[in-house]
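4.2 Preliminary Data

To establish feasibility before requesting continued support, the project team ran the inverse folding procedure on a target of 324 residues. The structure was first converted into the token representation described in Section 3, and no sequence information of any kind was made available to the design step. The complete token record follows.
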């Protein structure tokens, strides 16, 4: 592995990662954790970096500030956090960790679906704040999940995992829309996106953020949802337009929603979404469990060490740099 001035290459982490992963990296590299993820901080620290492990959005021009960078590794799946085209133009390998947090996200989807349907959080707050009210005023008037219809937009790792649990665990009918025709081993009925929104009791967004998916779920599709249907977004905030969603929730035109991701993260204080009824908000944690953090950390460390040894990382997403 080529040496930096003090004998070891420098790996910059945008955020802390699992301690075992840091230990693995430190056997071969110096590790620096950014004190914050402000773009100026990341640009400044990138100046000396040989490798960058990414858990936060990077500025588009980060590579202009990282003359010695030899590889970018995404601690997770979504590639919208990294300037992929710029890295490819500079022949810098980019790798990610497909499947590393799939189960965590699928379990989150189930938790959100159950809470939106059964209202455990709401009932807990009511019991503590108001006391024990007559059962009929507290009863959940929503249908059971079993036998209802789930719609999944994006039938990749997460979509497939959710479909498996929904069919085997809940006995749901599952509809799906994806870029390539997919049935997830026959578990999913492929349908056009309009049908997905019209016929589903719950819609899960599980596709990447791309130019095609940005703003895809707007007033048109939200307006097609059934009155008691719920929307769960675990993918990326900009795929779902916040204003028409807030309008629909406030007017009671849909049954509820759960959002783990937002166009602006952190979701700014005072944002309209905080006041919407029947809305569960979580701070981009669907893919984060003790299990997935260890898997992602060790996976990212191994990919980075491969890059620093001059090897092609196993999950490189811009393989064309090796053939050009
Ligand atoms: N909230 C969180 O903590 C997490 C969020 N995520 C987000 O979830 C996304 C999906 O993750 P994952 O399932 O692991 O990724 P995958 O790449 O396995 O799956 C994404 C799927 O979306 C499909 N897709 C792409 N474009 C469209 C489109 N325009 N319309 C419909 N489907 C489309 C892809 O189709 P095709 O197969 O044809 O390419 C693919 O099947 C990630 O990109 C990331 O942004 C991921 C992990 C954690
Ligand atoms: O893996 C991803 O894309 C995530 O969003 C995890 O935080």
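Position-by-position output of the design step:
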């Amino acid at each position: 592995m080529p040496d930096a001035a003090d004998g070891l290459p420098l790996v910059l982490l945008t955020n802390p990662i699992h301690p075992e992963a840091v230990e693995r990296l430190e056997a071969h590299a110096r590790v620096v954790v950014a004190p914050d993820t402000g773009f100026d901080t990341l640009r400044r620290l990138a100046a000396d970096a040989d490798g960058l492990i990414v858990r936060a959005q990077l500025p588009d021009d980060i590579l202009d500030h990282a003359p010695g960078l030899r590889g970018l590794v995404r601690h997770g799946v979504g590639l919208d956090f990294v300037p992929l085209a710029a890295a490819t133009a500079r022949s810098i390998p980019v790798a990610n960790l497909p499947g590393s947090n799939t189960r965590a996200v699928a379990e989150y989807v189930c938790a959100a679906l159950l809470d939106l349907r059964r209202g455990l959080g709401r009932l807990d707050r009511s019991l503590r704040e108001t006391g024990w009210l007559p059962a009929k005023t507290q009863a959940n008037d929503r249908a059971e999940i079993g036998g209802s219809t789930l719609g999944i937009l994006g039938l990749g790792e997460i979509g497939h995992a959710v479909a498996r649990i929904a069919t085997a665990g809940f006995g749901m009918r599952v509809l799906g829309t994806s870029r390539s025709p997919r049935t997830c081993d026959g578990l999913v009925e492929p349908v056009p996106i309009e049908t997905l929104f019209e016929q589903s009791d719950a819609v899960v967004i599980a596709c990447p953020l791309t130019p095609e998916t940005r703003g895809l779920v707007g007033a048109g599709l939200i307006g097609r949802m059934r009155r008691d249907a719920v929307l769960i977004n675990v993918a990326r905030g900009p795929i779902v337009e916040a204003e028409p969603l807030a309008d629909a929730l406030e007017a009671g035109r849909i049954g509820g929603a759960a959002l783990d991701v937002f166009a602006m993260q952190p979701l700014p204080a005072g944002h309209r979404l905080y006041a919407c009824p029947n809305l569960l908000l979580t701070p981009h944690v669907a893919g984060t469990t003790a299990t997935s953090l260890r898997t992602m950390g060790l996976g990212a460390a191994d990919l980075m060490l491969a890059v620093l040894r001059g090897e092609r990382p196993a999950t490189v997403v811009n393989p064309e740099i090796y053939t050009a």
